[in-house]
Design goal:
By secondary structure, the protein is α+β, with helices and mostly antiparallel strands. The chain has helices at 7-34, 39-47, 66-79, 81-100, 103-115, 236-272, 284-312, 318-347, 354-362, 371-390; strands at residues 121-124, 140-144, 147-158, 165-171, 186-192, 198-200, 214-225, 229-230, 274-275, 278-279. The chain has a 4-stranded mixed sheet with strand order 1-4-5-8. It has a 4-stranded antiparallel sheet with strand order 2-3-7-6, covered by helices on one side. Strands 9-10 form a two-stranded antiparallel ribbon. A hairpin with a 2-residue loop joins strand 2 (140-144) and strand 3 (147-158). Bound molecules: acetoacetyl-coenzyme A.
């Protein structure tokens, strides 16, 4: 595996870094305070080709691959994690429509996602009673002449009130399957924002990611044509799992970006702040914190790039994506906490960005599969490896 990005990957990374520095970083603290949704910034990301980084050019994407996507997302996250989560979910939705959609779905929806016309994409899997246990979801898609009628409630939907294109999971088995077979009864549908019968609820008041909206969605007999279904009836769970495998590389990249921003803030502050007549960085206790943070960040970065590389080269990557997401999100939490500690009392205030980094990083251990679910995915594949060796 190449450890150094190619020229094209560097170009995408630099494009993202410049946009982050010139546009996002300056207003990130204000966005955190006011909770403004980054609609204009998402359109600008689209103009830069960053809403479909791993999407073929024929559907409006940049076709630059997964490693470039990971590098770009980390740059955006380092400046403003709120913007990066909308970018991550939009890329994920564009990719799954590319992977599982019909030609017409790709032409219609992927192009709208990549061009910014759709503003954002949303991924509507979770429900009030179905989070980690995704296969148990209860939204129903009932067959009616010409299509389906969707009825049910979704929860925690990133950009759900802004997205022009929403992928929605629902049961097409009439809810009859027993627990063991319930994943086979799910199908996925592409639903346009604003479809009659679809309403978004009040945005959640969250600890962090204040510029990203997270809403419940309600489907009240929402009619969609048969052509809205992605792939075949019953393929929904596998589509969700494949999407989440890729999405976890996105969240790991976001964690690398936020962790790096926190480490740099700690480094700069430790050089500038003096106590006992010397900069904090001259104290071994502080230098050790920076050393541990830098080592963990490097491990997170390499795990993430490795998972991205495996996906890009068409190899199995589910376990490595879970490892990257697990490790990077937990490392980012530790690095942000360390950075706040280095800042002392100032770190606990809005005068410095480290308290925002800490709040923004916390959800990375929860969304797109909790740390506990990542461990479950990793453990299952380790156990399977051992039984494969034994047989
Ligand atoms: N790729 C392809 N197929 C897969 C797969 C994968 N990664 N993982 C499982 N499958 C297949 C299995 O092979 C199995 O197929 P068969 O029935 O043909 O054998 C089928 O799917 C069922 O698999 P499991 O028995 O493993 O299913 P499970 O019910 O035990 O669940 C789970 C597995 C990993 C716990 C899964 O439910 C899961 O990932 N849960 C977490 C959900 C999650 O991450 N939610 C995030 C919400 S989205 C979000 O947060 C976005 C945002 O806004 C930021």
């Amino acid at each position: 595996m190449q450890c150094e990005p190619s020229e094209e990957q560097r170009l995408i990374e630099t494009t993202a870094r410049q946009f982050a520095a010139e546009v996002l970083r300056k207003v990130a603290a204000e966005r955190d305070l006011n909770g403004t949704f980054p609609e204009r910034e998402l359109r600008q990301l689209a103009e830069l080709g960053l809403l479909g980084v791993n999407v073929p050019e024929q559907y409006g994407g940049s076709q630059a691959g997964v490693v470039a996507y990971s590098l770009a997302l980390a740059e955006i996250a380092a400046a403003d994690a709120s913007v990066s989560v909308a970018m991550a979910v939009t890329n994920m939705v564009a990719e799954i429509i590319c992977a599982f959609g019909s030609e017409q779905q790709k032409q219609t929806y992927v192009t709208r996602l990549c061009s910014g016309e759709a503003v954002a994409g949303a991924f509507a899997l979770s429900e009030p009673q179905s989070g980690s246990d995704a296969a148990s979801l209860q939204t129903v898609a009932e067959r009616v002449p010409g299509g389906y009628r969707l009825t049910g409630n979704k929860q925690w939907i990133t950009s759900g009130d802004r997205a022009g294109v929403i992928v929605v999971w629902a049961r097409t088995d009439g809810g009859k399957a027993d627990r063991r077979n319930q994943s086979a009864g799910l199908s996925a549908f592409v639903v346009e924002g604003g479809t009659p019968g679809l309403t978004a609820g009040r945005p959640e008041h969250k600890l962090g990611l204040k510029g990203s909206t997270t809403v419940p969605l309600s489907f009240d007999g929402c009619l969609v044509p048969e052509s809205a279904r992605l792939s075949r009836e019953g393929d929904g769970f596998k589509i969700a799992m494949v999407a989440l495998d890729g999405g976890r590389i996105g969240i790991a990249s976001q964690a690398v970006g936020v962790g790096r921003a926190a480490l740099m803030a700690a480094r700069d502050y430790s050089k500038e702040r003096k106590q006992f007549g010397q900069p904090l960085s001259d104290f071994q206790a502080i230098a050790n914190m920076l050393a541990d943070g830098a080592t963990q960040l490097e491990a997170a970065r390499l795990l993430t790039l490795r998972a991205a590389y495996l996906k890009e080269s068409g190899q199995g990557y589910s376990q490595k994506a879970a490892m990257a997401k697990l490790y990077a999100s937990e490392a980012a939490g530790r690095i942000c906490d360390m950075a706040l500690q280095v800042h002392g009392g100032y770190g606990y205030t809005r005068e410095y960005p480290v308290e925002r980094y800490l709040r923004d990083a916390r959800v990375q251990r929860i969304y797109e599969g909790t740390s506990e679910i990542q461990r479950l995915v990793i453990a299952r594949s380790v156990l399977k490896e051992f039984s494969d060796h034994a047989s």
